[in-house]
Amino acid sequence: MTRPADAFSPRALQPILAPWLVSPPASPTTAPRLWVAFSGGLDSSVLLHALAALQTELNGELDPNRTWTLQALHLDHGLQQVAADWSRHCTRVCAALDIPLTLRKLHLRPVPGESLEALARAARYRTFAELLAPGDLLATAQHRDDQAETLLLALLRGSGPHGLAAMPLAVPLGAGTLLRPLLGFSRASLADYAHREGIRWIDDPSNGDPAFDRNRLRQQVMPLLRARWPALDRTLARSAAHCAEAAGLLDAFADDALAELAGSRPGTLHIDAVAALPGPRARLVLRRWLMRDGFRPPGQRVLQRIIDEVLPARPDRSPCVAWPGCEVRRYRHDLFALPPLPPLPEPVLCWQAGRSLRLPDGLGELQLPRAVGRMDRLQVCFRREGLRCRQANGPSRALKQVFQAAGVPAWLRPWVPLVLIDGQLGAVAGVSQCDPCLQGLRWQGHPWERFGLLVSD
């Protein structure tokens, strides 16, 4: 067997990882972790094996005063009957390498018409982001062949410079950083290393299913292209790098523009300022704004809908443009990007023992002040009509007036908890206290804290 020209070895990873491993510690009391996303397949098995072999050098030669811990993460997508066998395989491999392994099971709920690939990818990266602590690194095993496929798929989807930039070497993720240290190596070089080192791996049968676009491209198209252009993968990787450079310049330009477009609420844009931009510039800043907030950037049509439907709407209207994982809405002169609103809560919740009430569907937690006496007097409800806020030193106001005065968007009001005392409105969580004994009521951990909309205490 002829060894590939880009022969892989653990030492080849050292200069790639060095810039990330010698940075100042995130915390003097916490050793940063180098995680490996370990599926048990060929690519991640090679990466884990190589990092295990390199661990001593990483903790010695790079920075004697900084110790890294190597850990593995295996995600069970629940899509294969043999998933439990894969978890056991990964457990055995990590035990043999003396590497701690974390197992996580994903609970995917695809809806008709939704891409299972996209759903699984989003769930993976959401789990990665939740796992990483400040200073942590997560290494994934995408290689040069994957990069070429990613660029071609982006081209076939009609992507712009950001899509054609394919996969970057490093990208912020959660509190840490995602690294792809194998992007410069071909799959053939990884397979050669695995055979030389006697590495055993598992094959995912779904990788052979031509119903998935990437598999069809890999099995039926790429071999034909490589037969005519043997340097295809290197050439496409170089094109991706050029697009990444152009995308970086566009991002820097958009960041400068966004600094002048801020709305009245944190994280929002001023609608009139965005609407005054030429179409291409408006699409550029909207896309960058969404990406900076961690949303999956929409396609050109969706961006144009935001410009055509949301920006010119009257301030008293509530248009919404949505795509998977994000909704763009307006209130008065501010443009909001937020995760999809959760299901409406049950009309009434009863307070149980204790001074905290965990609300359903990720709506956070209510915490009572000490002044509250009997808990059985309290109820929490949502979207109830006819309630009025009666304050000792002010006039009685309808609930709608309370919301309007506090600048709470109409589309958000049904999700704001209303705390009742003996059936009367005692507090509008995050907005107003109507009964003095609820002064100091706090609503924490809800999805809209970052906008500064619901912050009263």
Describe this structure in words.
The chain is built from 13 helices and 20 strands. The longest helix has 27 residues, at 232-258. Helix 5 crosses helix 9 (232-258). It has a six-stranded mixed beta sheet, sandwiched between helices. Helix 3 (83-97) links the parallel strand 2 and strand 3. 37% of the residues lie in helices and 17% in strands. With 457 residues, the chain is α+β, with helices and mostly antiparallel strands.
In short:
The protein is of the alpha+beta class. 37% of the residues lie in helices and 17% in strands.
Question: How do the strands and helices of this protein lay out in sequence?
Answer:
Blueprint: H1 14-21, E1 33-37, H2 42-60, E2 69-76, H3 83-97, E3 101-105, H4 116-131, E4 137-139, H5 144-156, H6 161-164, E5 170-173, E6 176-179, H7 187-197, H8 213-228, H9 232-258, E7 269-270, H10 271-275, H11 279-292, H12 300-310, E8 320-323, E9 326-331, E10 334-338, E11 348-350, E12 356-358, E13 365-367, E14 378-381, E15 388-389, E16 397-398, H13 399-406, E17 418-421, E18 424-428, E19 432-433, E20 442-444
Parallel strand pairs: 1-2, 1-4, 2-3, 4-6
Antiparallel strand pairs: 5-6, 7-10, 8-9, 9-10, 11-14, 12-13, 13-20, 14-17, 15-16, 17-18, 18-19
Strand order of the largest sheet: 3-2-1-4-6-5
Coarse shape: globular
Number of strands: 20
Strand content: 15-25%
Spatial gap, N to C terminus: 70 Å
* CA-based gyration radius: 26 Å
Report the helical percentage.
Answer: 25-40%
Mean pLDDT: 86
**Broad structural category:** alpha+beta
Q: Which parts are unreliable, with pLDDT below 50 for 5 consecutive residues or more?
A: none
The largest sheet, given as strand count, sense and whether it forms a barrel, is:
6 strands, mixed
What is the number of helical segments per DSSP (H or I, 4+ residues)? 13
